[in-house]
Amino acid sequence: MKTSDTEESKQWSHEVLKQFRLIFKAVQQHSQWVETHCGVTSAQLWALWELSKNPGLKVTELAKAMSIHHSTASNMLDKLAKKGLIMRERISQDQRVVTLTLTQEGSELLNQVPSPPQGILQHALFDLPENVLKSLAKNLDLLVKEMKIKDIEAAMQPINPLPKKSPSSKRK
């Protein structure tokens, strides 16, 4: 008999499920609030925050700081540049090397946003003690393996907010 077949294990499974729901819902709500009130996604806001702390970061360094794929970071930076929130500068002879800085508009936006600018999940994780993070990582790895998740690339993409409900999707 598997451990998960006991009544106590079922109760713990339900408790963990509820905690995941709380986490996902809170992240989605925070993301929606940021996008509605700031005009950028929560991931874009986190990128701006990282650049405010470390002006002159390279795209690869920003991607690493945010635990996202380089191409995901590049696409996000395209959107921030179009909004006039960041500047890309080529400062070396290697034209592929680009450094990133906030524009005045980017700094002003960052000064007006809610705390924590890097997002509530990231902020909470950054504040946990190392021993708790190690335990959490090991246990979540077991869960990922049990779920037989195939899309490992999803780990390198930001969490997106809930899609906005269109008027036609509401029940009458």
TrEMBL record:
Gene3D superfamilies: Winged helix-like DNA-binding domain superfamily/Winged helix DNA-binding domain. InterPro entries: HTH_MarR-typ, Tscrpt_reg_MarR-type_CS, WH-like_DNA-bd_sf, WH_DNA-bd_sf. Residues 13-148 form the HTH marR-type domain. One of its GO terms (molecular function) is DNA binding. It comes from the Bacteria. Keywords: DNA-binding, Transcription, Transcription regulation. This is HTH marR-type domain-containing protein. It comes from Methylomonas denitrificans.
